[in-house]
Amino acid sequence: MPTALVAILRDEVDDRLLELAEQFAAGGDTEIVVCKFVDESDYQDAVKEASREGHQVPITDEVREQAEAEARDAAAAVFSPETDYTVRGAVGELPEEVLEVAEELSSDHLFLNAKRRSPAGKVLFRDVSQSIMIQFDGAVTIHFE
């Protein structure tokens, strides 16, 4: 069965990206997997901040579970009740983690968000979406914000 991975890379979920994946899957027997990714460096920054402020430091499994819950909430808010999907949470270095999950799932299609940037902006700022798109061995649908 073909698999489409919807990679949520930001805190705010773009409903349009989920709508595109749902429309794509409706045309066939495609499994949708919605995965919220947390960048390892963002996680490490949060750990340092929590530690500095004397708060309990979240472990990776807790962060992954929270990301999965966010993916579940986002999908439930957009997908129709007839849409079959699964959700995941992942913590790791981006873009590598996205590519590893896509490979693990044998994903044929990847759905991503991207910010519009000038060529100079892409050089100066790390563009995770562009890197994933270049390295992924399959079809990619990008929704520009």
In what range is the share of β-strand residues? 15-25%
**Number of helical stretches of at least 4 residues:** 6
CATH topology: Rossmann fold
Q: What is the CA-CA span between the terminal residues?
A: 30 Å
Order of helices and strands: EHEHHEHEHHE
Write a structural description.
The protein is an alpha/beta fold. The chain has a single domain, classed as 3-Layer(aba) Sandwich (Rossmann fold), CATH 3.40.50.620. Helices cover 46% and strands 24% of the residues. It has 6 helices and 5 strands; from the N terminus they run βαβααβαβααβ. Helix 1 links the parallel strand 1 and strand 2 (31-39). It is globular. The relative contact order is 0.22.
Provide a concise account of the structure shown.
The protein is an alpha/beta fold. It has six helices and five strands; from the N terminus they run βαβααβαβααβ.
Key structural traits:
single chain, 145 residues, alpha/beta, Rossmann fold, 5-stranded parallel beta sheet, 6 helices, 5 strands, 46% helix, globular
Record the SSE blueprint.
Blueprint: E1 3-8, H1 15-26, E2 31-39, H2 40-52, H3 60-78, E3 85-92, H4 96-104, E4 109-114, H5 119-124, H6 128-135, E5 139-144
Parallel strand pairs: 1-2, 1-4, 2-3, 4-5
